[in-house]
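Sanity check record (used in CI):
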Amino acid sequence: MFQSIKLIEKPNDFTSEKTIKKVADFFISKGKTIVGTDEKSDLIVVIAGDGTLLNTARLEINENTPILGINLGHLGFLIDVSIENMFEVLEEVLRGVFTEEKRTILKTNIGGQKYIAINDIVIHKHNSMRMIEFEVYVDGCFVSKQRADGLIIASPTGSTAYSLSSGGPIMHPDIEAISLVSICPHTLSHRPIVLPSSANIEIKMINSPDNNAQVIIDGQINIEIEINTKIKISKNDNFMRLVHPKSYNYFEVVRSKLKWGEKL
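Expected output for NAD kinase:
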């Protein structure tokens, strides 16, 4: 099933470097081929945290390659295999015993430049305490004009990230949807809204203090924008394919990360 394997490590991390050698030796002992980071593969194994997986998924999205994550610290929302049981899980994966998810992700066009977002696309004020002003359109229909600190456009995967801390809904990863969540809106009647993944969203910048505003993708890519900039957002054609252990349970992950049912 998986013959060629690509291994991705956390940059400049000793534990990641040490672990990746053990994982490479394991796959080689099973007759698998380890390929370079710029080559195509049947499976990508990320040995790091959620941030490295997000970056890898963006870079590899056009290859449609499944990704398995081995976490070096606390288990994340996306990476759920620990170092302690990684070889047991890898054995099962090579036997075809695993769960695969296909998650909706986003694409955006900002002034002619195209980007992929796994979690979210955030339009935000920059270096100012003053709010920005923008218009929101969905499928060509005017939705609202807002004054706020910003707007989060989130995928189901991103619904448990910045969107959640801003009052947005948790969306199950099997749902094909996009949420719009305002950040500290001046008008309190602006509430989060969930759209079908077929929606074509356009945000037009109307005003920003000293022309300082940014689009931030997955918390990792920053793009400066000006007044009258149009930001177009829609579902990406390809999905992010995640490989999990057979015992994977989304609600168990959410309950663990959000401390549901625990005394705080």
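The longest helix spans residues 14-29. If this sentence no longer matches the regenerated tokens, the check is flagged for review.
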